[in-house]
Write a structure and sequence with these properties.
Low-confidence stretches: none
Shape: elongated
Strand order of the largest sheet: 7-8-5-3-2-1-9
Order of helices and strands: HHEEEEHHEEEHEHHHEHHHHHH
Length: 358
Amino acid sequence: MLLKEKLKNIIPRENSGSISSNRFDYQKDWAICKLIELSKQKDFLLAFEFYEDIIVFDSSENPKTIDFFQIKTKGKGKHSISTLLKKNKGSSILGKLFNNKINFEKETNSLSIISNCDYKIELKNKNFVGIKICCNEVDKNEAKRIAEDLSSELSITWLNEYFDILFFEKSNLTIEHHSDLTQQKLNKFIENKFIDLKYNPSLAYTTIFDEVKRKNNFEKSLNTFDELVKYKSFSKSDFDKIINVVASEPYRLTKLKSEILNRLDSEKVSIVFRRSFQKNWSSAEIEYLKPNNLLFQKLVKLINRTIELKESLLDDNLLNSMNKIYIEVLNNKFVQEQLIFDDDFIKILILKNLCDGE
């Protein structure tokens, strides 16, 4: 049975992550850092809150393996085998994680606990220094306890090979500064990818974080792999696309803004309108960077279509042309019924689309 088909038959356990979004800001930032790391691969699919906090498929079209990641933040102290095996409502942290291996026996590539804190775990090599511990490196007494407890909890026969796919990893993101650290990583990634390109670092991070949040918090049931791809995942193509947008579009919009203002000044527009333009242009820039702002995209398409159909209304005066197109746009039922975008904002979109590509 293909992995895509198998997903239909195994129902994910209940997870509060899609509801308690604030608790998972750390998780979202870790996911952005993981996306940066995965971007070096030819293909992948990173999914949120589906079977586990984060899962990564080896392909966005025909996956064969899955890596499961459970994110566990801790205010103070360390994780130990005892805390990871402690049962809460009949299940332990490791038990919940390892249950994925039972459901996807052949497809599971790895199982990882990701945390901001250290681990208090006895290892075979007492001098081990690192941030990622494979379970096959654990002291034999600790390993025996893991095998016995999980065998009992999950009613399975333990195989030593299971230790090879189980990992305990300390993230370099701290609880206090995970947002700042993630933005630094993102900035470095963009600057290496787009040398000498001017962009807004804060806006780039906010745009990507908001898109991760939107996908993470999508709560409707998913019935197919295609729905998972569409609503709760990032593929390599998705991530590359949003990086290209946040890196290049702000500079292009800033340049276009300057050109429009120069034309408006030559037409001696009022100071009141100029101030309105400045204010609404900033809001429009943010909307243009959101990849799935469907209501905004519908409005932009309507404006573009109106400009194409009513080209005869346009003349050399930019402000006059804007007002004529604005009257036509207001006749549309969708514009009349929507309550999000006000008249001044719509006028700025019309100006932008009149001048863009000239």
